[in-house]
Amino acid sequence: MRTKIIGLILFSISAHSSYAQQNNTPEQQELINLSKQKWDWMANKNVDSLNVLFADKSMFVHMGGSWGKT
Question: What residues contact residue 40 under an 8 Å CB cut-off, 6+ apart?
Fold first, then answer.
């Protein structure tokens, strides 16, 4: 019973997610793409590309820690 409920919830979430991704405006998709690109830059520590996105006194804060611009 519990497995069926969890499966139904996961199916519902994935169906909603798939539907939502197909209905993005061009502006929304551009923002989504930029966000994904920013996360790739952060994961790869590509500071040259990140430099143009953040102010000098900016601080990225996440539950796993924080990262200043320097």
Answer: 46
Q: What are the sequence ranges of the domains in the chain?
A: 25-70
Q: Could you give the dihedral angle defined by the CA atoms of residues 29, 31, 37 and 43, in that order, rounded to the nearest 10 degrees?
A: -120
Residue in 61, 40, 62, 64 with CA at minimum distance from that of residue 50: 40
Nearest to 37 by CA among 57, 52, 23, 22: 52
Q: Give ∠ CA 21-65-36 in degrees, rounded to 5.
A: 25
φ, ψ for residue 25, nearest 5 deg: -75, 165
pTM check: above 0.70: no
Tell me the pLDDT tens digit for each residue of 32-42. Answer: 998 999 889 98
